[in-house]
Amino acid sequence: MSEAIRPYDLVIVGASFAGLVAARTAAMRGLKVAVLEAKPEAGHRVATTGILVKEAAEEIDIPHTLTRRVHGVRLYAPSHRFIDLFAPGYFFLTTDTANVLRWLSAEALRAGAKILYRARFEGADREGGLFRFRGLNIASRYILGADGARSAVARAFGLSVNEKFLTGLEIEYEGLAGADPRFLHCFLDSKLAPGYLGWVAPGPVVTQAGLAVGPGRKPDLKAFLAATEPIFGYTDARAVERRSGRIPAGGLLPRWATDGVMLVGDAAGQVSPATGGGIKLAFELGRRSAQVIADHLMDLGPPPAVALAPELPGFAIKKITRSALDLAPPNWMLDAALGLPPMRWLAQHMYFHRRGAGGVSFAEFEARLRREAQAPGGPYPKASPGA
Asked: What is the 3-state secondary structure (H, E, C) of the chain?
């Protein structure tokens, strides 16, 4: 006798940032939820740097032991001259990304969701009011695709798919002492990182060094590491893990939902075309997707896509910025521009926009960071002089 089909209200495909936040929210709203994940566990073979802007940290309270606060950005020209950028009261969080995903999965389980690992989505057929999943003994009333930039859910249901990507490579180091931990170190270089940038990001456990390039280009991580070796001293550190990934860069997809099915996160193109940032939106829209699905299934609410559409970002300006970045201006131009006020303003706007705290002047905040960097036994090593 065959085993009875296990029915769920909502099946989420992908134990991603968006998928796990959605699972937790939907379960707390009273839905019977399952998450399908092809990997053996949520933190396996992470493909993202996992840097959070402050607003993402305000969406989801992540345990402080899994994060490290970084207050500024050190932006380098191709010649390695640099400027330091920050906004009073603002910070970024570098993360122990694999363990953040494990913590999110534990939170989803604690809320009542079920996570089915080593369960690959191979399609689903609609029969009456239920989707029956091929190769799995489960069915659901609704499907949420949170399965990344090359979403199988999108392909299975004829939704739009991402076609424009940034391609990134990264390596993690233990004992990389040369990276001033007050800063995200970002490198402009149209030869090494055309269309995007390189980075060195001090994290709570390891330091991440990598680069991404614009659509149609191939990253050369070895060349980037060789060029920045004199600054950071990678050869004195221990490489512990390598990763690669593709980041959607085309903006929100035109067809991200159909009857009974919706995409969220990278699967829906909910990623900034300019910066590649998507975790904040994954947290926000993962939660909101679960809320509108629960409203629809439990409380006679409108179709989830109708309810969510007004809240989605348009990315109009960021698409223009992406087009400009894809031009990859020559390095001599980047070197000449870095020290000029217009370039500083543009960089400050890109990284911080209008963020920051009132009641603290820029000069006061700068002086405080300098004192902390130079204090004996303080949290930061003494910074080397800039441009």
From this structure: CCCCCEEEEEEEECCCHHHHHHHHHHHHCCCCEEEEECCCCCCCCCCCCCCEEHHHHHHCCCCHHHEEEECEEEEECCCCCEEEEECCCCCEEEECHHHHHHHHHHHHHHHCCEEEECCCCCCEEEECCEEEECCCCEEEEEEEECCCCCCHHHHHCCCCCCCCEEEEEEEEEECCCCCCCCEEEEECCCCCCCCCCEEEEECCCCEEEEEEECCCCCCCHHHHHHHHHHHHCHHHCEEEEEEEEEEECCCCCCCCEECCEEECHHHHCCCCCCCCCCHHHHHHHHHHHHHHHHHHHHHCCCCHHHHHHHHCCCCHHHHHHHHHHHCCCCHHHHHHHHCCHHHHHHHHHHHHCCCCCCCCCHHHHHHHHHHHHHCCCCCCCCCCCCC
State pLDDT tens for residues 240-295.
Answer: 999 998 999 999 999 999 999 999 999 999 999 988 889 999 999 999 999 999 99
**Residues 35-90: tens digit of each pLDDT:** 999 999 998 888 888 899 988 888 889 999 999 999 999 999 999 999 999 888 88
